[in-house]
Amino acid sequence: MKLTTTLGKLLSIVLLSALMPLGAQAQMAMPFGDKGSVNYSQKLWSAMADAHMVGPNAIMSKPYKGQHPHGAVLDTIEGTVTVNGHSGTAIIKRNYGGPGVSIASVANNPAKYLKAVTVMYQRESGYDTDNKNWFWAKYKANGGLHKNPKGMSLAGRVAKGMPKGCIACHTAAPGGDMVFNNDRYAR
Question: Of all residues in the chain, what percent carry a pLDDT higher than 70?
Fold first, then answer.
């Protein structure tokens, strides 16, 4: 009896997923940290490095006082980069911290205090329509990805559907665009 019930449940799942549209199947997939998101994050990092937005030759804005979860001091730049033939807006926030960190110390020696680079990249239409098609990533200073406490790489639809994390926080941004420093969309 148990075997029949288990086989019935398995068959139901297989049939349901076969009948489900591909978009819905994608929504059921891991929202972040999967192989596709990690690979995409590597291409995004390369595109941003080519545009001098990250890495040793990165353009830097004026550092300013930060707040949790990003860092004690931040600098933010944005521009357009192309990944896999799609050009989109990249908002790059460099997160600084550590002993002796201050706006002046970061301005004088940013590499010494850089702890993370957090990025919002607006992907192609249909990537994540619920969240304005933003792709999220939290990189280390060298371009590797940070991981959450469960060991998941922080790239993709980070913390989608969760009460805390990138998407949950940025949903509160004014203007309905998930961006805090300006309103992207006309009302």
Answer: 81
